[in-house]
Design brief:
Layout: E1 5-7, E2 13-17, H1 20-23, H2 31-37, H3 54-67, E3 72-76, H4 79-82, H5 91-106, E4 110-116, H6 122-127, H7 134-150, E5 156-161, H8 163-172, H9 184-208, E6 213-225, H10 231-254, E7 275-286, H11 316-325, E8 332-337, H12 347-363, E9 368-373, E10 393-395, E11 402-404, H13 406-417, E12 419-421, H14 422-428, H15 433-436
Parallel strand pairs: 2-3, 2-9, 3-4, 4-5, 5-6, 6-7, 7-8, 8-9
Antiparallel strand pairs: 1-12, 10-11
Helix pairs in contact: 3-5, 7-9, 8-9, 11-12
This protein binds beta-D-fucopyranose (FCB).
Beta-D-fucopyranose is lined by residues 19, 22, 161-162, 165, 219, 279, 336, 374, 381-382, 390.
């Protein structure tokens, strides 16, 4: 029987994503490193340690990415390496980043580079932190410096990774290295300053590299009342969804603070993004009044739930989030999407069903330009330590041994061919055949 194919555009970017602290190893000069040494901060007392040893040997995993047919990769810079003390820039660290970025180009892998992915130089958090406007000046200078030194190798930049997750985890949940001042007022103050940081970095980069694309990787999630929820639950889901999904980009678009940040304008913020980055993982049910926390981690009876109760598999949500950012009229990149699944029992079908939603969006001419799977290789998953394995490549942090998961084989076929086919589904996720490629299953052998 002829294969059915979902074909992606020839210039589509097929990548994976990582973050400095999660893969580099020995980032001893940042706030995460210190936090990890304290009792009770990280699940099972895990530490990032050598992580995936990228500081010494990123090239080996870049070889694997190239072999997987990837033509793009999203990584982040570790600010504490580049500026180990205020106003002191380390040229050897910048040289190492140049090497890594050059290694990507040599392998046909286009870099997308994030400036801030959850970690901070110790001196920043000890001094001013994001509750003070001083952080904005420092961030601007750091952005200008790296654009100057590395910009010729970086066509795409992300200023800040998941600002709302960052603020929530740091100021409200205190599961990330927490500053002295926490709570709602501090969270809103930090959000305003992160918006200022973004605007400052956006213009610092564009001044040096007018042709670069600069944006934000924004975590977006579906918030819904539980089935059978009432009008209040519905109203509450809408409020949380606005706060988490829309408030940031709405502020960026209009240059004005939006509810509940307060009122007023931020200078140079309006229209300060060239693309919308979506990090999509899951959906949450919410209920009003919230019980013991904003989110409700109980899933429906038929839900497919990933390791450690991380989240429910809900591919339709990625389509909904793409539709949600169409209002900004910018190119869209899926800057993260993945699942913690050590045994790799779910990831192959997760890949196929999520890519199907993206393909569906593209076939409606929604401008989705690339997909960066989180992640290339198992890495240090923040407060959950090494308990959550997101890699297409499995890695043992003790031995640094790696092996390609089945899902990595599938992603290789997808990236190399620029398509998802019924034949792939048949081999990697046969249970999906009827739902995704009806009538395409090979006839049963009598
Ligand atoms: C995202 C983070 C990324 C990783 C994945 C699983 O929220 O940006 O660093 O932790 O989740």
């Amino acid at each position: 029987m002829a294969q059915a194919k979902m074909i992606f555009p020839p210039d589509f970017l097929w990548g994976t994503a990582t973050a400095a602290h999660q893969v580099e190893g020995n980032n001893t000069n940042n706030d995460w490193w210190v936090w990890e040494q304290e009792d009770g901060r990280i699940l099972h007392g895990h530490k990032s340690g050598l992580a995936c040893d990228w500081w010494q040997n990123a090239e080996a995993d870049l070889d694997r990415a190239a072999e997987m047919g990837n033509n793009a990769h999203r990584l982040s810079l570790e600010w504490s390496r580049i500026e180990p003390e205020p106003s002191v820039f380390d040229s050897s660290a910048l040289d190492r980043y140049r090497q890594i970025l050059q290694a990507m180009h040599d392998r046909g892998i286009e870099p997308m580079v994030t400036l801030h992915h959850f970690s901070n130089p110790l001196w920043l958090v000890e001094k001013e932190d994001f509750n003070s406007g001083v952080a904005v000046d420092y961030f601007q200078r750091y952005a200008a410096k790296v654009a100057d030194v590395l910009g010729d190798l970086v066509p795409k930049w992300v200023t800040i990774n998941e600002p709302m997750v960052y603020v929530f985890m740091r100021y409200l949940k205190k599961a990330f290295p927490a500053p002295k001042q926490t709570g709602w007022a501090a969270a809103m103050q930090a959000t305003r300053n992160l918006l200022r940081c973004h605007a400052a970095a956006y213009h610092a980069i564009k001044e040096k590299q007018p042709e670069a694309l600069v944006g934000v990787a924004k975590n977006m999630a579906v918030f819904q009342p539980r089935p059978g929820g009432n009008r209040l639950d519905n109203w509450w889901a809408g409020r949380i969804s606005w706060l988490f999904n829309d408030m940031w980009h709405e502020s960026l678009q209009h240059g004005r603070l939006r509810w509940p940040l307060g009122q007023g304008r931020i200078k140079h913020l309006a229209d300060s993004f060239d693309f919308t980055g979506i990090n999509y993982y899951t959906r949450f049910y919410v209920k009003f009044p919230p019980r013991g926390g904003l989110l409700d981690n109980e899933w429906g009876p038929d839900a497919i739930v990933s390791d450690g109760n991380y989240g429910e598999v809900y591919p339709d949500g990625i389509f909904q989030m793409i539709k949600r950012v169409l209002r900004y009229d910018k190119p869209i990149y899926i800057t993260e999407n993945g699942i913690p699944d050590q045994a790799d029992g779910i990831r192959p079908s997760f890949l196929i069903t999520h890519l199907r939603e993206i393909w569906r969006a593209i076939s409606f001419c929604f401008p989705v330009m690339g997909y960066y799977h989180w992640s290339l290789v198992d890495n240090f998953e923040w407060e959950r330590g090494w308990t959550q394995r997101f890699g297409l490549i499995e890695m043992d942090p003790e031995t640094q041994e790696r092996h390609l998961r089945q899902s990595g084989r599938l992603y290789r076929e997808i990236c190399r061919s620029g398509s998802v086919t019924s034949d792939m589904a048949q081999r990697y996720a046969p249970d999906l055949m009827d739902a995704i490629f009806p009538g395409q299953s090979p006839p049963a052998v009598a």
